[in-house]
Amino acid sequence: MFFRKPKAESTYGEVINRVAVIVRPKQPFVKWHNRVTGDKKKLIDFKHHSSTYLFALESSASEAIKKVEAEYEFIFGHYLLQSTDDMATWPQEITLDMFKKWFDIEMSVPVIDLAKVKLKAG
Q1: Distances from the Cα of 119 to the Cαs of 53, 57, 66, in angstroms?
Q2: Three-class SS string for the chain?
Q3: 38 CB-near residues (< 8 Å, 6+ apart)
Q4: By CB atoms within 10 Å of each CB, which of 12, 49, 56, 65 scores lowest?
Q5: What is the mean pLDDT of the chain?
Q6: Where do the structural domains in the chain lie, given as residue ranges?
Q7: pLDDT digits 0-9 by tens, 16-63
């Protein structure tokens, strides 16, 4: 069957009230990562090394972008921590402009839950 009716105990097939924001490293991040870790990774190696963050579904794309920009320090720190927990090697000043130079941002709406279990945090 093409479309299945959701079961009461799950949100399967439902559009959830979130926008998915996919953050992918760009070349400046790769260069920094290689310098602090000694790796010799290329940008292509990070193609599938991306994180997805869920934000409240806003009425416009520009409002959603503002929400992402308000959380840039958290997102940036998350990526730096994945490379090294030695904060002495992290950039001394992290700015929104730097975030935009180091990462690509892609938004996806709608977000459709295809899990067979109810959505929960944790």
Answers
A1: 15, 16, 25
A2: CCCCCCCCCCCCCEEECEEEEEEEECHHHHHHHHHHHCCCCCHHHHCCCCEEEEEECCCCHHHHHHHHHHCHHHHHHHHHHHHCCCHHHCCCCCCHHHHHHHEEEEEECCEEECCCCCCCCC
A3: none
A4: 56
A5: 87
A6: 14-113
A7: 888 889 999 999 999 999 999 999 999 999 888 889 998 888 767 778
